[in-house]
TrEMBL record:
Family matches, as NCBIfam families: lytR_cpsA_psr (TIGR00350)
Low complexity composition-biased segments: 453-463
InterPro entries, per the entry: LytR/CpsA/Psr_CW_biosynth, LytR_CpsA_psr
Annotated family: Belongs to the LytR/CpsA/Psr (LCP) family.
Domain Cell envelope-related transcriptional attenuator: 192-355
Keywords, ordered alphabetically: Coiled coil, Membrane, Transmembrane, Transmembrane helix
Coiled coil: 15-49
Stretch list, region Disordered: 70-102, 436-463
Protein name, as recorded: LCP family protein
TM segment ranges: 109-132
Pfam families with a match to the protein in the record: LytR_cpsA_psr
Compositionally biased spans, kind Acidic residues: 77-87
Length: 463
């Protein structure tokens, strides 16, 4: 812990910002967990009522069939001519019993009608919920991206149950309007991966690690099919290439190619791909009412100009939010490079998740629908439907603030003669082996086992 009388360096400031973001994220998780429990309770009650209603409906139909049969027999008997002796034999007591029986039948019929009506309403409500889920899933732009049988995956059996989301921020300008202020396809053709993050949540859901990859990371690109960002289709095969940048993999081969590269580097089984482009990104931020970030100094970029003039906790919306995650050459950033941008992107993603999972959004139908619509417009990928996103949200509910760690893949830290970043191969291998095996990360202390009852009693008695 830093003494308050000592000077606070940039690393300490950054750690404090991360701690503040994670604390807010943890609070949002706790709220969501309580809300999810309430939803489960309501769902269980609804299922129980539906089963009761179905049972009543079955009984009603059975009894109704019996009543119809009895009435049919009665009608046949009524058609037979009555003799005078029959009228003389009918007593007032018998007529009173018949009247009472008819009244009981009417009451029973009303109860059956009510039961049938409730059953129909439950069926309609269930259909509406199913229809809403189907509609939401239809909004996502499905693009082939995954290769879950890749030979590059290490210890595939040991990764069963893990959730690995490859998140790629694309700089494609397809579909962008002039007012979006991101350029157009004529000025900036094609699509590159400005942001590449691998979010890992192990099967036990006890932590989450998000690893960022520099866009200028030097790689050997495998053989890939050429991808058309306008249509989302793949075409002819492009030969493999050495000494190229990571963002060129997306430019050449789209989601499939960048997934191949990251699986080669990490050995991890990527089972979700989420691509986000500039067009529509601002709508996601605006739909949740903006994203709060902490600014220590005014943020001005060499290319984008002044982005944030205020300091402290600032709510970013629209163009300002977009420029915050795009800026690479910020004067107040000591790195003045992609490393500073990755740090800002990690902070922004944490705050955006916190805002999205907050009560203000989840309990507001308008905001939630607006966010889903904006997310659908600006994202594409594979295995990212409603069920998968709910799995991600539920997996992160129980995580404490310290259980979510943002980091960058180990690199030399300086550009080589090709202006590329080089991996520290052994450090990289150690990092991803720890993630795959679900062991402490390099540099972390192993978690101490909890003492047993006897050990705890001995420790208490020695104090």
């Amino acid at each position: 812990m830093t003494d308050q009388l000592e000077p606070v360096d940039d690393t300490t400031k950054y750690k404090r910002k991360i701690d503040n973001s994670l604390a807010r994220f943890s609070a949002a998780h706790d709220e969501l967990e309580a809300e999810e429990q309430e939803r489960r309770d309501r769902r269980d009650k609804l299922v129980a009522r539906f089963e009761q209603t179905r049972t009543k409906l079955h009984r009603a139909v059975t009894v109704a069939t019996s009543v119809v049969g009895q009435r049919g027999s009665a009608l046949v008997q009524d058609e037979e001519p009555e003799t005078e002796s029959d009228d003389q034999q009918a007593s007032p007591q018998t007529r009173l019993q018949e009247k009472k029986e008819r009244r009981n039948n009417r009451t029973l019929l009303a109860a059956r009608v009510t039961a049938i009506t409730l059953a129909v309403l439950v069926f309609i409500a269930t259909g509406i919920a199913w229809g809403a889920k189907t509609w939401f899933n239809s909004q996502f732009n499905e693009i082939a991206a995954l290769d879950q049988n890749s030979k590059d995956i290490q210890n595939a059996q040991g990764q069963l149950g893990d959730e690995n989301f490859l998140i790629v921020g694309s700089d494609t300008r397809e579909g962008a309007e002039v007012e979006d202020n991101v350029g157009d396809p004529d000025g900036v053709p094609g699509a590159r991966s400005d942001t590449v993050m691998l979010a890992h949540i192990p099967k036990d859901r006890k932590r989450a690690v998000v690893v960022s990859f520099p866009r200028d990371l030097e790689i050997s690109r495998p053989e890939c099919e050429r991808w058309n960002p306008e249509t989302g289709e793949y075409g002819e095969v492009v030969d493999a290439a050495d000494v190229v940048k990571l963002n060129s993999a997306f430019n050449v081969g789209g989601p499939r190619c960048v997934t191949k590269v990251i699986q080669q580097i990490s050995g991890m089984a990527i089972n979700h791909f989420v691509g986000i482009d500039f067009n529509g990104f601002k709508g996601m931020v605006d739909a949740v009412g903006g994203v709060t970030v902490h600014i220590d100094e005014p943020m001005e970029d060499q290319e984008l100009g002044m982005i944030v003039a205020e300091t402290g906790d600032v709510v970013l919306r629209g163009d300002q939010a977009l420029n915050f995650v795009r800026a690479r050459k910020v004067y107040s950033d000591p790195t003045f490079s992609d490393y500073g941008r990755m740090s800002r992107q990690q902070e922004f993603m944490s705050s955006l998740l916190s805002a999205t999972l907050s009560r203000d959004v989840l309990l507001d139908v308008g905001k939630l629908t607006g966010f889903v619509n904006a997310f659908a417009r600006s994202t594409f990928g594979e295995n990212i439907g409603v069920d998968q996103l709910l799995t991600l949200a539920q997996s992160m509910q129980g995580l404490s603030a310290g259980a979510v760690e943002f980091m960058t893949v180990p690199t030399v830290g300086e550009a080589n003669e090709n202006s590329n970043e080089e991996l520290l191969e052994q450090d990289t291998a150690d990092l991803f082996k720890a993630l795959i095996d679900n062991t402490p990360l390099p540099g972390e202390e192993p978690a101490e086992p909890e003492p047993g009852p006897g050990e705890q009693q001995a420790a208490d008695s020695s104090e």
